[in-house]
Amino acid sequence: KQPGNGVAISALSSRCEEPVFTASLMENDAYDRIGDEPPNYEETSFSGGTTSNGNGTGNGEHRAVRPSVVSAFGHDTLDRVPNIDFYRNAGSVSGNRAVRPSLQELHDVFQKVSVCDREGSDGTPSDDVESVIPLDNKDGTVRFGWIKGVLVRCMLNIWGVMLFIRLSWVFGQAGWGLGIVVIALSCVVTTVTGLSMSAICTNGVVRGGGAYYLISRSLGPEFGGSIGLIFAFANAVAVAMYVVGFAETVVDLLKENNAIMIDELNDIRIIGCISVVLLLGISVAGMEWEAKAQIGLLIILLVAIVNVFVGTGIPASTDKKSKGFFNYDAKIFMENLPPDFRDGETFFSVFAIFFPAATGILAGANISGDLKDPQDALPKGTLLAILITGVTYLGVALCVSATVVRDATGNINDTIATGMDMFCNGSNTAACEQGWNFSSCDVSSCKFGSMNNFQVMTMVSGFGPLITAGTFSATLSSALASLVSAPKVFQALCKDNIYTALKFFAKGHGKNNEPIRGYVLTFIIAVAFIIIADLNVIAPIISNFFLASYALINFSCFHASYAKSPGWRPAYRYYNMWLSLFGAVLCCGVMFVINWWAALLTYAIEIFLYVYVTVKKPNVNWGSSTQAVTFVSAVNNALSLTGVEDHVKNFRPQCMVLTGAPKNRPALLDLAHCFTKNYGLCLTCEVFVGPRTETLTDVNAGMEKNQMWLNKKKRKAFYAAVACDSFRQGTENLMQASGLGRLKPNILMMGFKKDWRTADTAGVQSYVGVLHDAFDFEYGTVVLRMNQGLDISHIIKAQGEYTHASYLVVNAYYCIIKHITNVFSFLFSPPASVTTPQSPQVVVVNERLVSNSTQFQRKQGKGTIDVWWMFDDGGLTLLLPYILTTRKKFKDCKMRIFIAGQPGRVEQDRMKSLLEKFRIKYADIHVIDDITQNPNSNSWKMFEDMIEPFRLHEGSKSTTLAEALRKDNPWKISDAELDTFEEKTNLQVRLNELLQENSRAANLIIVSMPIARLGSVSDHLYMAWLDILTKNLPPTMLIRGNHKSVLTFYS
């Protein structure tokens, strides 16, 4: 508080950019800034009436101010009416992100808050894909509707090289019976995938990245990152496939005109490379030119398809008949019904060659960032394209099957005299009955017919050059679509920075953010596969990659539906989760059927990339269905545990660790982590003491920060904090309310209160009260003592982390200067340190303290863990050190057991038998038979000096004075109390002597914790017991179980 002006200034983020000053119902922030522009504020009757210039996009326009809420409710209020801008991501460019008033603002309007993103952002625009592709058409960005952007693009990509070059061959090999199955199976896969894709893309705003974006935002970066790379590569290889198909057609024309340049194979390579260079030029020119080229190609393609249907009805010439074309004939149609697989082909090999013809369904999705309304365009355009192209494929194939025989010689002299058709039999019966003798094809291979001539469509059509033009159109349009899709998907993947090495390819150029670098990479991959120059070899390669993408799209839809997340609300309703699962399984099955080794290779690559991304843990959170399923599974598993009673064999240490901020007491956290890692639950807890209004801000601010610190340090623990008036009350609340069902702490772990002798009485009573509460709530209790202490928070601050006061002053000064001057581009760096230099002695002490505090983060050398199991507490004193010996850091430490007993081997043999039944390894067992001796005078003198300031000494005073002393100082240690617990006191002092005698060199000492009877032992006497017991020793843990068995020797 600044005295006199009533303005509360709070800097909530070290990276705060713009301040907002709230005092006596002054102005409240409404819009979050975008980029480096200032925020805008809403004008209301209680605002200062100033509105910043700039619209957050850097063009200097004045942002429209929303209607005042005063007009909606008739009175001044900070509450805002529902608005879509409140729900936008940080850095969204589809609109200005608004920041609604926080709950703290509404609850306490004098609370100062900053404009910094309340979702934990650093105030900079999000790195998500949607923040880097502008949606405002005012800057000249090209946007497509569902017809031009999806329907046309998908149809052109599906009507690819197979339509005019391989479709007749597929139906020649498989017959039209199995040929229909080939097309139907392909359509089933694509239709189910289309339905799943429609559901996913209508469940929120879709940005650039196509299949990668859909999968990554549904299943998370692990699946999305792996399939995104594969899918981009498949599209790059598809460019080669379509270009090779184009080159084959050109080479066939060259053959007909005897114009072969070198040979057929090298001509395909030369023409293919030249073609892909020209296509690259069109793509680099921009999406607008590419779209215009697609429309022109579509018109040519439609004319060519119509030309095929027209040509089948035109009477065949003698030349066409010699090549196997006889107009419509029922006998030809029936002769082409059964399959006739040749040259080692099978149904599945033929299917593998045809299936890439159906893989164009994602052509629209791949440019989703360039669509006006992806949610509306993708379902409508994709499903309609599948229907139209499926019917077209089927219609063209059946027309050819009814008019063209499988084999023909092409010799116009191979006719049969009239009346000789009665001798027709064998495989060419239909042609024979038409008066043609193609029987020589049974002996030697022929060059014509649907089985031998890839240019059947040209022969069947009414005007051959149109089919050639249609082939060029089909192949080049598909190649162009793939050449655009691959870099777009790859760019989206790189922008998410999942693979840091590929960040180079994320940069875009021009108004449409064109991925020029991605185009060049795609060009190189395409040229490499064009060198293969064999369509039948390239097609199966990409079939598996596309099928893997389709499988994951289907699985994404199923997974999101199965998770039943409230956020899964697709606008497209015509899908079914089980149909999507069937589609995913079908895609996987088809992958193995097409080529089993290629399928295994695809999965191996995908698994490798998945593991890589999982290990790298990219810093993204897209609210994937994987998170939703994990949450549902966790809740269900937690509920299932509640239906089963605890069993001693399944006991797990579940620790509540009073670390304060986790980084402040590393030794305590490290030991707790050793107990619970892969075994049980660990809660690091902090109690904020003070008025709730003052501490709640610290509680809320520390939740995410401390949990992120635990995750960063790879500590499998949770952070919890409470705000209370006292430390004991806060700890009591934590012990009663922490946990979920059986996932509930059963051990309280805390540090020893080293300053108990100088602390105030209330502090000591609170500390001991926590131990009493732990016993009352039947918690196992662990107290760790290290000679150097546990708390290193002051060192952390001294090494560069600001104290709250310095942090507040520096940032408040910084924000005030920026707000007054409006120098928004000025980069201000706070001082690196506000602490004063430390003396050399202090530095040495601090270094020693840090080294001791972090010793359990290092591997322990050869040594011992000495367990002084004085009292049977259910076995916790023995179980915890055993768990330590199973950890890598303590694997070189042997466990020694110390027990109290009579001289001789009876006690030793008894303990040896017990440990063997418990199957606990140990190095040695020591029986302490002189534990009942009185401590020496020096030790006793040390104890007396320790408790002297806290004694009443009422025995040497009159009865009246003694009673007055007890009344005024009820917390002090009375002579009667010392007499009553003399033996127990002697035991603690004597134990310390024995510990120094036997365990001085141990790596870690475990001792049974003495219990103070509630109401009988004063707090200071109990603290003296714990102090004298653990004084001048290596790291020591006092452990007391809840006296319920945690060990058993039964199976």
From TrEMBL:
It comes from Oncorhynchus mykiss. Belongs to the SLC12A transporter family. Residues 31-63 are annotated as: Disordered. It is a multi-pass membrane protein. It catalyses: K(+)(out) + 2 chloride(out) + Na(+)(out) = K(+)(in) + 2 chloride(in) + Na(+)(in). This is Solute carrier family 12 member 1. Residues 64-114 form the Amino acid permease N-terminal domain. Residues 42-54 have a biased composition (Low complexity). GO terms for molecular function: sodium:potassium:chloride symporter activity.
